[in-house]
């Protein structure tokens, strides 16, 4: 597709994890198997590609107000500037010019899987441009390979698979090429009630997941018994959350969120901090049953489960102690791609003919 009037777009949803976080990180998942339960939400990463008849590749990061140019014939070196894009270009051996636009509804370090979701949106758009057919497992695995192995970015498997498949999933991990995504068939009434009872609160602090994951992996490889026991508990709780959610036992589900959070904090002392602990404790005092920090830990978004009759009190208290509440909903679709003809802009005039007469609108 070389028509400069064509734009190819990829759109992938960000995710929230309910339980099992950290058990998808090697070597724990390689040795013992990991399990994650979570869902995607209506916040997205977007990629737009506009082919050009030149050798110039221009990448526009709309979130960071950054523009970087490359020559399509050159080897792209990783230097910390939009390396996700360069790795995706290398993955598809892109040797034609294009404009690439990237945008995400949440900041990096928010705990919603932003970098992996951007990668999924980027690779899906490039695959459509190149005419490469990838099923969801192949796309998620490619995103993992490019981000974790090619670029060496620390993290687990869940983000790439969540963004690709979308919806509520229970995902089991036994290392590379042995990931099984189990879509959960949850009644609409249960989804609506769960949404009504959840609060998503931004802590105002960006986390550096690599530091947390490095410490977690170190605890495992150094045979830290308490940390390893905590990882096994977090994995078991993911199975328990799945059962309670499928049964529609949402208050039990909310309490399990608390058990999971208490266990996860024992996996690494970098997962929480006094500010987050205060925010969480105040939410419990106001009536929340449980919750957890999303992502690896250290900052980002805090998810809290609150019975509907105290949700407003929890929300008020969290804002009083510095939390920023977010408007959101569940998204049941995964990655989407499409192409579109760019408008032939600027127009000089549009003429509209209707039975009452002819109308002209000048620009």
From TrEMBL:
<dbReference type="InterPro" id="IPR013750">
    <property type="entry name" value="GHMP_kinase_C_dom"/>
</dbReference>
<keyword id="KW-0418">Kinase</keyword>
<keyword id="KW-0067">ATP-binding</keyword>
<dbReference type="InterPro" id="IPR052203">
    <property type="entry name" value="GHMP_Kinase-Related"/>
</dbReference>
<dbReference type="InterPro" id="IPR020568">
    <property type="entry name" value="Ribosomal_Su5_D2-typ_SF"/>
</dbReference>
<dbReference type="InterPro" id="IPR036554">
    <property type="entry name" value="GHMP_kinase_C_sf"/>
</dbReference>
<dbReference type="Pfam" id="PF08544">
    <property type="entry name" value="GHMP_kinases_C"/>
</dbReference>
<dbReference type="GO" id="GO:0050201">
    <property type="term" value="F:fucokinase activity"/>
</dbReference>
<protein>
    <submittedName>
        <fullName>D-glycero-alpha-D-manno-heptose-7-phosphate kinase</fullName>
    </submittedName>
</protein>
<dbReference type="GO" id="GO:0005524">
    <property type="term" value="F:ATP binding"/>
</dbReference>
<dbReference type="GO" id="GO:0042352">
    <property type="term" value="P:GDP-L-fucose salvage"/>
</dbReference>
<dbReference type="Pfam" id="PF00288">
    <property type="entry name" value="GHMP_kinases_N"/>
</dbReference>
<feature type="domain" description="GHMP kinase C-terminal">
    <location>
        <begin position="241"/>
        <end position="319"/>
    </location>
</feature>
<keyword id="KW-0808">Transferase</keyword>
<dbReference type="InterPro" id="IPR001174">
    <property type="entry name" value="HddA/FKP"/>
</dbReference>
<feature type="domain" description="GHMP kinase N-terminal">
    <location>
        <begin position="84"/>
        <end position="167"/>
    </location>
</feature>
<keyword id="KW-0547">Nucleotide-binding</keyword>
<comment type="similarity">
    <text>Belongs to the GHMP kinase family.</text>
</comment>
<dbReference type="InterPro" id="IPR006204">
    <property type="entry name" value="GHMP_kinase_N_dom"/>
</dbReference>
<dbReference type="InterPro" id="IPR014606">
    <property type="entry name" value="Heptose_7-P_kinase"/>
</dbReference>
């Amino acid at each position: 597709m070389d028509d400069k009037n064509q734009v190819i777009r990829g759109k992938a949803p960000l995710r929230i994890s309910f339980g099992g976080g950290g058990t998808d990180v090697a070597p724990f998942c390689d040795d013992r198997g990991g399990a994650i339960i979570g869902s995607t939400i209506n916040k997205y990463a977007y990629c737009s590609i506009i082919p050009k008849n030149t050798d110039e590749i221009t990448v526009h990061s709309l979130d960071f107000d950054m523009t970087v140019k490359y020559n399509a014939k050159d080897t792209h070196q990783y230097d910390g500037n939009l390396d996700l894009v360069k790795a995706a270009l290398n993955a598809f051996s892109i040797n034609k010019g294009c404009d690439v636009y990237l945008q995400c509804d949440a900041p990096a370090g928010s705990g919603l899987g932003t970098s992996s979701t951007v990668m999924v949106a980027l690779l899906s758009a490039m695959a459509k441009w190149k005419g490469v057919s990838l099923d969801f497992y192949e796309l998620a695995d490619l995103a993992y390979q490019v981000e974790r192995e090619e670029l060496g970015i620390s993290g687990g498997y869940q983000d790439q698979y969540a963004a690709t498949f979308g919806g509520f999933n229970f995902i089991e991990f036994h290392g590379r090429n042995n990931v099984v995504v189990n879509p959960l068939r949850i009644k609409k009434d249960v989804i609506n009630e769960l949404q009504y009872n959840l609060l998503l609160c931004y802590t105002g602090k960006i986390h550096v997941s690599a530091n947390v994951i490095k410490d977690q992996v170190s605890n495992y490889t150094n045979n830290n018994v308490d940390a390893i026991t905590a990882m096994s508990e977090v994995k078991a709780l993911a199975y328990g959350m799945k059962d309670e959610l499928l049964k529609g036992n949402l208050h039990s589900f909310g309490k399990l969120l608390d058990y999971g959070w208490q266990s996860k904090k024992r996996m690494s002392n970098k997962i929480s901090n006094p500010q987050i602990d205060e925010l969480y404790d105040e939410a419990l005092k106001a009536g929340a049953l449980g919750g957890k920090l999303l992502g690896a830990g250290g900052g980002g978004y805090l998810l809290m489960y609150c019975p509907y009759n105290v949700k407003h009190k929890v929300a008020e208290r969290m804002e009083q102690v510095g939390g920023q509440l977010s408007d959101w909903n569940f998204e049941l679709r995964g990655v989407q791609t499409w192409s579109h003809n760019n408008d032939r802009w600027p127009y000089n005039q549009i003429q509209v003919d209707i039975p009452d007469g002819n109308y002209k609108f000048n620009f």
